[in-house]
Design goal:
Layout lengths: L16 E5 L9 E6 L2 E6 L6 H12 L12 E4 L5 E6 L9
Length: 98
């Protein structure tokens, strides 16, 4: 049976929110990436890293607004708990990930 999809243009825009969960690096040099439009910020694990330290390492790199791609500055990154980063679109209705 076919499905009908309706577009409701009068709905309020909602900011996209995505939570990324990190795993414990299994060696030195594991990479964790944030990529938008082919522009990437990369954190490489170091000795003693845990999932929380790797998440915090990438989070810190993403919050250096003077040296990252403009696309990544359109997102607010938060490090709300151990081993996770939450990304929220600064402009409601503007998606950044699927």
């Amino acid at each position: 049976m076919p499905t009908t999809t309706y577009w409701a243009p009068n709905q309020a825009s909602i900011a996209q929110v995505v939570t990324y969960t990190f795993t414990v690096p299994n060696s030195i040099g594991n990479t964790y990436n944030a990529t938008i439009n082919g522009k990437t910020v990369t954190y490489s694990s170091v000795s003693g890293d845990t999932a929380a330290l790797a998440a915090t390492g990438l989070f810190n790199l993403l919050n250096v607004s003077t040296s990252i791609a403009p696309e990544l500055t359109e997102i607010t990154f938060a490090n709300p708990s151990s081993g996770k980063i939450t990304a929220t679109a600064k402009t409601a209705g503007t998606p950044f990930a699927n």
